[in-house]
Amino acid sequence: MMRIELLFIDEGVAARATLLEDKAPSVCRMLWRAMEPPFEGMGVHAMFTGREISFPLGPDRIEEAALALPPENQTLFPIPGDLVWNAYHPYQWQGVPEPVYDFGIFYGRDSRILLPTGWRPSTHFGCIDENLDEFAAVAARCQLEGRKRLRIGRIQS
């Protein structure tokens, strides 16, 4: 079983999630490989999708084949605790010249994956199953306080 921890570094608040290997096998395998060492960076509150922390991943950490992964376990209406994956080709997202990879962490109700370019079916690849409430409280503060440092990595069993 693939399990990960999502940690707000400065607040010391962590949640744990299970990856949906049976429903999104390609995305789960790709992210699992990429999480060694853990991802670390800035999570930002989404503008269009609702209660989501968007955690952009640099192209240096994601294999180029990620752009060719098949659609898996697609959703438009994530629920609290859902982890969602999106990959954009160079120039596809607002003219950015390199690939854009987004690890979305949905923490609250009434969210939808509707972007300025329209509806974006996305891969639902994991679910937070431990400490969502405390994690969500910190995530919600990102709307007023701005970006927060996050670390996302494997839990070794």
Task: Put the structure in a nutshell.
With 157 residues, the chain is of the alpha+beta class.
What does it look like?
By secondary structure, the chain is α+β, with helices and mostly antiparallel strands. It contains two helices and eleven strands, in the order E-E-H-E-E-E-E-E-E-E-E-H-E. An eight-stranded antiparallel β-barrel has the order 1-2-10-6-7-4-3-11. A hairpin with a 4-residue loop joins strand 1 and strand 2. The longest helix is centred in the C-terminal third of the chain and has 14 residues. The chain is globular. The chain starts with a strand and ends with a strand. The model has no long low-confidence stretch (mean pLDDT 95).
Task: Record keyword descriptors for this entry.
157 residues, alpha+beta
